[in-house]
Give the backbone structure.
Amino acid sequence: MKRTKKFATASLNLLFGAVGTLPLGVLYGISDFVAFLAGRVIGYRRKVIRKNLSASFPEKSTKELREIEKGFYRFLGDYFVETMKLGRMSKRQILRRMKFEGQEEVNECLNNGQDVSLLLGHFGNWEWISSIPLHLPEGIHGGQIYHPLENEASDQAFLKIRSRFGAISIRMKDTLPTIMKWRKEGKPFIIGYIADQVPIFEGIHYFADFLNQDTPAMTGPERLSKMLHAAVFYCDMSRPKRGEYLCRYVKITDDATALPTFELTKIYYQMLEQTIKSDPRLWLWSHNRWKRTRKDFFSVFGKEEAEKRLSHL
């Protein structure tokens, strides 16, 4: 079994590496073909995508929604080829294609000995954000929280790509031990949280008004940021053109503890919604984001326990 897993991982690494050597122009040609297959032939997660889009934008016509859907499939193809390309990109290439605006303010917090939390969503190519360590002061840890993929070979292949420029991938279950270890080392650190996924029922403590829907929210980033007294920034992503991304840091607070309970989570979802509305094609619509409802939440725990859970982090 171990030998089979090693072979599968080595094979994926070889495939990703081979694809990554191709010029982006060629890769985008492949992406367009993949988008055609996924959108027009296979209809990859089409029901979920259309349900999410129609619920999020009730004011848009069917024609407008189909245009967003078409653009999403094209972006999804781009995401995969760009991610494979990341594994073979030079430092010069990624610095030219993934830019950060406001890095000085982030680095000032770190240089002053303060930990930093970055909040972002599955918008644009979030994998390219892993190049942040190239912009940090020397000796600063740059971490990213992730949930392992079910397929171990794919998980290992993606981890290799994500660590390409020094980012440290932290399993969700290992977040607290890792933070405590870094705290003991006495150096500030920066951690990125992609917080727009659907939480498990046990992890729900807040429902956000997000994209016209009552949305169960992940509050772990707020809880950890308050524990660390971290400065918190939102990553406002945009894509000026194909193959280039810009992350604009927007400071939410100098110290997460200064905000009332759930305020940080609320602000994050408000900011993410505005980012998504700026270019709806670039968000992960294929994720079944609203599969857990408030009604189901109350059904699982009962009224008294559910209200108790919604009263605190």
